[in-house]
């Protein structure tokens, strides 16, 4: 894939970049290694000062960088501004909390005594340069939710961003540099996916995090495994959105639309499979399809646009194939389903009913504004359908029944259960999945500790 900014609303190539050659990669790795040796000795207060400064600069740049993100990957401009604001918030959160989250821990006195020590503690030390392989769909948020905790913990970052968002990637390096982080603390490597192996196998790189598709995750994890390096994987999702009879239907249908189409439907934690109890199925389906059909598809730079183009031509082709496969196997189209006749990679909000397990869309992630509806007879069937997927990122449940709620929290195979609302990440809550959605966690204390050397310090009596 060429490293280039291609406007998905028009298909026009606006800027292309040469990939870094071997010599430059080597130079950058040496800088990262040197930067780590010095950055790891800085205090939390020094790091926090820089991180807060980065947040302030990002707030100042919000309008401009939002336009860059929208130009590169097509998200509606208001959502691009919200993404930049969310990144500034996460930076401030880690600036404020990192020291407390990584403070030395003292084991219980009786355990210290039992081990024969006079004292002991657990210290969270940094690991070194961490490689971050990131996707285009939230081109700033995915990076910041890695970079903010990593830098606050004393690590340094090497970003291999998706090839279609180079300007956002370069902006992030520049932002952190302007904020006062020393050269090499956070570098953007303009490289293709083929060069990831070379970087990851380098002994100066200590760990890797990847957010993206399952094939990319499998490839990076295999190399890291061969090198015995720690990885965190945040992969795809096909989250269930379960509606039970006690739900407030109007509200559930309204939130369902947002949960499906946020970010033009290209979010790992978008609700993708709508599993509805038969008693309320028809009423929900009617409201949901009407809400989807009413959305404004158009120029993502316009304030009133709800859905812009898909980010890449291949992405739209893949989504179309999933819809055609389902319709060919008997799915009913409640709205959408036909690409519009216009330039750019647009696809309309689409709702499919009558999904069966043999349809590809039942098992694969629909990365675009396409929702699938399932009718279920009872709680058991709702849980069974929800779990009948290779993925396990998050889940949404709509009920006011305590027994149902307990069952969902107990049995849904996912890294999150969001009740009477939609999945959304927050710096204070862990984020990540199970099954083929990956492993490890980002955000919260769990995220910042993923790339720490958790060190036991034991002192004899
Ligand atoms: P992708 O094709 O896997 O790309 C993600 C990143 O991996 C890009 O930087 C890409 O580089 C790189 N890459 C691709 N193949 C690779 C390989 N074999 N070895 C090393 N690096 C490789 O995914 P995407 O299409 O950009 O993103 C969509 C996917 O990400 C969806 O499945 C979505 O659900 C998932 N996602 C998950 C989360 C989460 O938190 N769980 C969040 C957002 C997105 P190039 O661009 O150069 O190919």
From TrEMBL:
<dbReference type="InterPro" id="IPR016162">
    <property type="entry name" value="Ald_DH_N"/>
</dbReference>
<dbReference type="Pfam" id="PF00171">
    <property type="entry name" value="Aldedh"/>
</dbReference>
<dbReference type="InterPro" id="IPR016163">
    <property type="entry name" value="Ald_DH_C"/>
</dbReference>
<dbReference type="InterPro" id="IPR044148">
    <property type="entry name" value="ALDH_GabD1-like"/>
</dbReference>
<dbReference type="InterPro" id="IPR047110">
    <property type="entry name" value="GABD/Sad-like"/>
</dbReference>
<feature type="domain" description="Aldehyde dehydrogenase">
    <location>
        <begin position="3"/>
        <end position="457"/>
    </location>
</feature>
<keyword id="KW-0521">NADP</keyword>
<comment type="similarity">
    <text>Belongs to the aldehyde dehydrogenase family.</text>
</comment>
<dbReference type="InterPro" id="IPR016160">
    <property type="entry name" value="Ald_DH_CS_CYS"/>
</dbReference>
<protein>
    <submittedName>
        <fullName>NADP-dependent succinic semialdehyde dehydrogenase</fullName>
    </submittedName>
</protein>
<dbReference type="InterPro" id="IPR016161">
    <property type="entry name" value="Ald_DH/histidinol_DH"/>
</dbReference>
<dbReference type="InterPro" id="IPR015590">
    <property type="entry name" value="Aldehyde_DH_dom"/>
</dbReference>
<keyword id="KW-0560">Oxidoreductase</keyword>
